[in-house]
Amino acid sequence: MRVVSLVPSLTEAIARSAPGALVGATDWCTHPADLDVTRIGGTKNPKLDRIAALAPDLVIANEEENREPDLAALRDAGLRVLVTEVRDVPQAFRELARVVEACGVSVRPRWLDEAEEAWSALEPPARRTTAVVPIWRRPWMVLGRDTFAGDVLSRLGVDHLYAGHEDRYPKVALEDLRAAAPDLIVLPDEPYRFTPDDGPEAFPGLPCALVSGRHLTWYGPSLAEAPRALGEALRAAFR
């Protein structure tokens, strides 16, 4: 089995579950750190000729991460493309199981069981917190409706204020974000790399939780660590 992955979190899942199957991955596929495969460009601008030259048996993609015209071109080139859709935590587990099975894995990976156990063992939140979750600045963009990251936060007791917006990642003026008066600002380090010096200063007087984007937005082995890692970062914002 020869697999090309166009999704960083799924790259990590495949590498853990089917060692040796990956022959290509995007420039943004950072996990595992020692991954040694052909790089085929970005998630939004993959080098299609390079992918075809690898002669993969399967290309793994995602309906949000990757562009349909690129996926259509790969299919037209005779390649099999598996497209995932992940909008909440249960769907992530179903899609991960489908991906690893498509990659020829006959035994369910232990990490997948551990990840499901970590989320099923969550205690109901003692209290709920409202939040704004920027994912970009210049312009400011935030989590909107129907997102995996929004579901992750909801399960940890955080209700983001734009969950009912008509857009999944709306652009919102900074003054409107402040006026929404959330209890908390959640600042991930991807896709925009918010840091202690880049992000919190825009929200004076509001607690800011700097969180790992990998734990907030990736669906793969990191899901096993995500409840603990995110929970600690959220609690630290109120200390």
Secondary structure layout:
Blueprint: E1 3-5, H1 8-17, E2 22-25, E3 38-39, H2 48-53, E4 58-62, H3 68-76, E5 81-84, H4 89-102, H5 110-120, E6 129-132, E7 134-136, E8 141-142, H6 148-155, E9 158-160, H7 174-179, E10 184-188, E11 208-211, H8 213-217, H9 226-236
Parallel strand pairs: 1-2, 1-4, 2-3, 4-5, 6-9, 6-10, 10-11
Antiparallel strand pairs: 7-8
Helix pairs in contact: 4-5
3D architecture notes:
With 239 residues, the protein is of the alpha/beta class. The protein is 33% helix and 16% strand. The protein has helices at 8-17, 48-53, 68-76, 89-102, 110-120, 148-155, 174-179, 213-217, 226-236, and strands at residues 3-5, 22-25, 38-39, 58-62, 81-84, 129-132, 134-136, 141-142, 158-160, 184-188, 208-211. A hairpin with a 4-residue loop joins strand 7 (134-136) and strand 8. Helix 4 (89-102) runs antiparallel to helix 5. The protein is globular and about 55 Å long.
Low-pLDDT runs of 5+ residues are none
Distance between the termini: 50 Å
DSSP helix count?
A: 9
Rg, Å, rounded: 18 Å
Biggest sheet strand order reads 3-2-1-4-5
Q: Into which percentage range does the β-strand content fall?
A: 15-25%
The amount of helix comes to: 25-40%
Main sheet properties = 5 strands, parallel
Number of strands: 11
Secondary-structure-based class equals: alpha/beta
User: How would the global form be characterised?
Assistant: globular
Q: Could you report the average pLDDT, rounded to the nearest whole number?
A: 97
Order of helices and strands: EHEEHEHEHHEEEHEHEEHH
